[in-house]
Amino acid sequence: MRLLGRRALVIGVIAALTLTACSGADTDTTAGGNNGLEKTTIKVGILPIADVAALFIAQERGFFKAEGLTVKPEIVASTQVSIPKLVSGAVDITLGNYFSVLAAQEAKMANFRILADTFQAKQDVFDIVVRKDSPIQSVKDLKGKKISVAALNSIGTLAVDSTLRANGLSPEDVEYAPMPFPEAPGKLASGQTDAAWLTEPFLTGVQKDMGARKIADTMTGAMADFPIAGWTTIEPTLTKYPKAMAAFQRAIVKAQQIADSDRKAVEKVLPLYTQIKPETAAIITLGAYPSTLNQTRIQRVADLMLEYGYLKSKMNVGPLLVPMPQ
Predict the structure, then answer these.
(1) What pTM was computed for the model?
(2) Strands 227-234 and 112-120, how do they pair?
(3) Domains of the chain, earliest start first
(4) 66, HSE (Cβ side, Cα atoms, 13 Å)
(5) CB contact at 8 A, 256 and 116
(6) What is the pLDDT of residues 217-235, one digit of tens each?
(7) What is the pLDDT of residue 120?
(8) Contact 149/160 with Cβ under 8 angstroms?
């Protein structure tokens, strides 16, 4: 089955990266530091996308500092790159799209733990786009075409798979081209890909800069209001630094609440870690920024992955969720 073949491929890639990932994480473990934290400096893997806006809101408003934390963001290409860094100890926490985290959990790469929810899809936050002069007019026209996604066997392929199935096609009808989001617009413009699955700020960027056309919103039907990603660590890190992880949770949840209720706060921080300009930040489409960990919501991801053949057996996501500190 092609889906399972792709699944095996990405697990192999992740495993290989794990063996070669740098393990030079910050080792500040001074007991009795600020607020009695076991570790006061933590490294966090992020992507240059709207999902992580709350982290920069927390930085800007001093929420981490108030908890005694210094947070050092590190931009990575995808969750499939950040997971090996997390497992090796090169980062303490990472933005983890739920698909990749659950796939890695089933592959027994580590015992992953989700500290806080990050991002939830809304209408037109994850679209398939084509060049303005492309002959592709609908999803059905994608048959035999090359579509860029951030990574193979990821939330991107799951979303596109769902869209293809809803339009009478299957994943075998297209070719997926994995590449980091920042590279996708150029590949689309040059004709090296026929379509691109993009999120913000790249989605608005290609529409504004090159007149790209949307042919499908992939977050509809089975994917409507889909949980996208969460702040993720591993069990050994959580066990070693429980106070530091709880401090991160408290700070990020405050920032998530602001991100979800104050669009201007998100617009302000986007240019700090992306190439997006303030005028573009003001018009991009944003998803939701949940401030609670809801098992029922995240279970949707595991169940759909199982239905589409990305997981071998049913998974209960409950043990992966870290309760919020009081």
Answers:
(1) 0.82
(2) antiparallel
(3) 2-121+226-320 (3.40.190.10), 126-223 (3.40.190.10)
(4) 12
(5) yes
(6) 999 988 999 999 999 999 9
(7) 95
(8) yes
